[in-house]
Amino acid sequence: MLRSSVVLNGNLKLKTNLARRLHSYFMLCKYSIDEFKIRLSCESWDCVFGNNDNMDVDSLFSAFLNNYLRLFYTSFPLQKIIERHDNESWITACTKISCNHKRELYLLRGDSNDTNLNNYYKQYCKILTCYQRSKNVYIS
């Protein structure tokens, strides 16, 4: 799913990929806008406004658009940011207690060769896979 362009805080947001949380936008700052204006004024528009009696409107527009977009992409490079999720509100107090208990079982299991303890640890790990599923549901 892609969302269309919006202007937000001086940045032109181009696309947002909701699945990966990848944001693409053009940086619009005073310096880059001034640079774009200078490049537009210094550009030779002979291919568009010159002596083009034998060219049709479509090819003239295509030449104009090619020049304009070349200058735009040079002045405003595309920035990509991957959104990080520092919000771990899916972790409850019970989840933290269960993870700490699992860690304690792991440490106990490493020191002993008790098969009952190993089996209990494996069963406990299978129970905790539901937490991974809840994390995936929360993040997506």
Supply database-style keywords.
about 140 residues; alpha+beta; 4-stranded antiparallel sheet; about 15% strand; rod-shaped; disordered N terminus
Give the biggest sheet: 4 strands, antiparallel
Radius of gyration: 29 Å
Counted up, domains total 2
| Amino- and carboxy-terminal Cα gap | 13 Å
Question: What pattern of helices and strands is seen along the backbone?
Answer: EEEHHHEHHH
Which percent bin holds the helix content?
55-70%
**Proportion of residues in extended strands:** 15-25%
What does this structure look like?
It is a single chain. Helix 1 packs antiparallel against helix 3 and helix 4 runs antiparallel to helix 5. Strands 1-2-3-4 form a four-stranded antiparallel β-sheet, with no helix packed on it. The N terminus is likely disordered. Helix content is 56%, strand content 15%. By secondary structure, the chain is an alpha+beta fold.
Kindly summarize this structure in a few lines:
With 140 residues, the protein is α+β, with helices and mostly antiparallel strands. The chain contains six helices and four strands. The longest helix has 19 residues, at 57-75.
Give the helices and strands, then pairings:
Layout: E1 6-8, E2 11-17, E3 22-27, H1 30-42, H2 46-49, H3 57-75, E4 78-82, H4 93-111, H5 115-127, H6 129-139
Helix pairs in contact: 1-3, 4-5
